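Pilot study result, target chain (79 residues):
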Amino acid sequence: MSKLVESYILILVETGKEYEVAEEIKRIKGVEDVLITYGIYDIVVKVETESLEKLNEIVTRIRRIPGVRQTTTLVGVGV
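Predicted structure:
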């Protein structure tokens, strides 16, 4: 059995769009958790997928959501 790819996507959005964008992201298959945060990033998303290709599809879908300005993706490696 292969291990899931666990990653975190850090997102900057247009001012006032945080909740709207977060609700849209929650609908994406593979998204495990969505948090609105204070600080440099507006939203943090936890994603678990079976491959990097699937992760790429999710990131691309998030980037296409109106109001998303920038994303940074962190891929986790277990210790």
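One observation from the pilot: The longest strand covers residues 5-13. A full batch analysis is planned for the follow-on phase.
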